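Bit of a strange request maybe. I'm writing a small parser for structure token strings and I need a real example to test against, not something I typed by hand. Could someone generate the tokens for this chain?
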Amino acid sequence: MILPIIAYGDAVLRKRSIAIDSEYIKLKELIENMHETMYNAYGVGLAAPQIGLLIRLFIIDTSPFAEDDTLKEEEINAVKDFRCTFINAKMVEEIGEEWIFNEGCLSIPNIREDVSRKPTIKIEYQDEDFNTHIKEFNGLLARVIQHEYDHIEGILFTDKISSLKKRLIKGKLSNISKGKIDVEYKMRFPDAKKKR
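Reply from user aminoacidic:
Good idea to test on real output. This should exercise your parser:
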């Protein structure tokens, strides 16, 4: 089932999410619905707060990046078959000299900005069967994971841009929160009190 994606301005996107356990009701169905929602919106990641749930859950499928001809072959190989569910994730370490990449977000449609992030991360998480993993990720994979991890911490990519850039996009962000934007996927807007 395709779920509406919560738009910028909704308070749920600013709250820290809580851990869940294997008793969480209909978790497998929720994860399937999140994948369907993400694919419908042509995203590569989706966090539970983006569908209105304050739980520490996000999904990633970076295979669309494999079509990006600006990536190096090693980067394409890393992202082309990567699909993962992260439950109760905890960032263990972020390593290296920050690098810039142009990011966007399904909750903030039609806005993209350069964001600096560390190139290597170590993260602890549980998979769909609640097996615990501690893994290291690099490059584009690390960036997508950091972006989605921020969502479960109540942080948006727009928090990581300069004050000047924030002022320049202020009007666009206001329009998003009011539903004054055309999107090709289902969204819920906080100020508009309606879904599209």
